[in-house]
Design a protein that fits this description.
This protein has helices spanning about 190-195, 200-215, 220-230, 235-245, and strands spanning about 5, 10-15, 20, 25, 30, 35, 40-45, 45-50, 55, 60-65, 75-80, 85, 90, 100-105, 110, 115, 120, 125, 130-135, 140, 145, 150, 155, 160-165, 170, 175-180, 185-190. The chain is of the alpha/beta class and about 260 residues long.
């Protein structure tokens, strides 16, 4: 640990963790083993950082929520093992809604991205440069959000989805799909991403059939759900898609818009 850093004696620092010069570590902070904390990083009270995490210069972790309803309640930011937090990323701790903001394992949060209070970023997500995610949002595993995108509060982004850079995300984005343009619209199945994650062609074809029913046959949501339920063979992917659509509170993005 560098003597030019300010590390509160009550902070718990794991074995073989390196903290570079001019970083600030508050009390009530737990940092795991084999982490690297770069120069000029600020980690406030409530941070819970796993093992093998890298945090680059200028990042601010577990700052007080930018929420006028916050009343000083004890909340946390939790960052999973092997995640990387790049330059000037900001992550706010939770409020009394969830009491924590969560970043999963093996995530990459690129420079200048912001994760607001009470968000859940699940494992293996990539949040590209300057993405701004408002409070209470959920990003499911393996999702990729393109650079400069804006995510409305309480929005849900499905697993294995891919959203183009510069998007404004006001509605929920279903699992396994690509989304782009303005207003944000369904642009097909993320088949390349799925193949990279060892989905076979039978699984991909079934996913494509479900989205064809949802987006290309002119049906409303209820009609599409009923047809998918009746005509598509049961599978994990079918269960995930139907559960996501049925539980959507903001509504899902629309179909292809030219």
């Amino acid at each position: 640990m560098n003597s030019q850093s300010s590390i509160n004696p009550k902070a718990k620092i794991g074995k073989n963790t390196v903290i570079e010069a001019f970083s600030y570590i508050d009390d009530n902070v737990i940092i795991g083993n084999n982490c690297w904390i770069g120069n000029n990083v600020t980690i406030y009270s409530g941070a819970r950082i796993g093992n093998n995490v890298k945090i680059f210069p200028g990042a601010v972790i577990s700052s007080v929520p930018q929420d006028l309803k916050f009343d000083g309640e004890h909340t946390t930011v939790e960052i999973g093992d092997k995640s990387t937090i790049r330059e000037c990323v900001t992550i706010s701790r939770g409020t009394k809604d969830r009491f924590k903001t969560t970043i999963g394992k093996n995530c990459l949060l690129m420079a200048y991205s912001h994760i607001a209070h009470d968000c859940i970023i699940e494992d293996n997500c990539i949040i590209v440069n300057a993405v701004q995610i408002a409070g209470h949002s959920i990003v499911q595993e393996y999702a990729i959000i393109g650079g400069g995108s804006l995510v409305h509060q309480f929005t849900k982004i499905g697993c294995h989805s891919m959203i183009s850079g510069g998007s404004i995300i006001r509605k929920d984005v279903p699992p396994y799909c690509k989304a782009g343009k303005e207003p944000l619209s369904y642009k097909g199945v993320n088949s390349i991403g799925l193949k990279r994650r060892n989905f076979n062609q039978i699984q991909i074809n079934q996913i494509q059939n479900m989205f064809r029913i949802l987006y290309l046959e002119g049906k409303n949501i209820s009609q599409a759900i009923n047809k998918i339920s009746d005509e598509i063979e049961d599978s994990k992917e079918k269960e995930i898609i139907l559960k996501f659509i049925k539980s959507s509170e903001r509504g899902v993005i629309k179909g292809i818009l030219d």
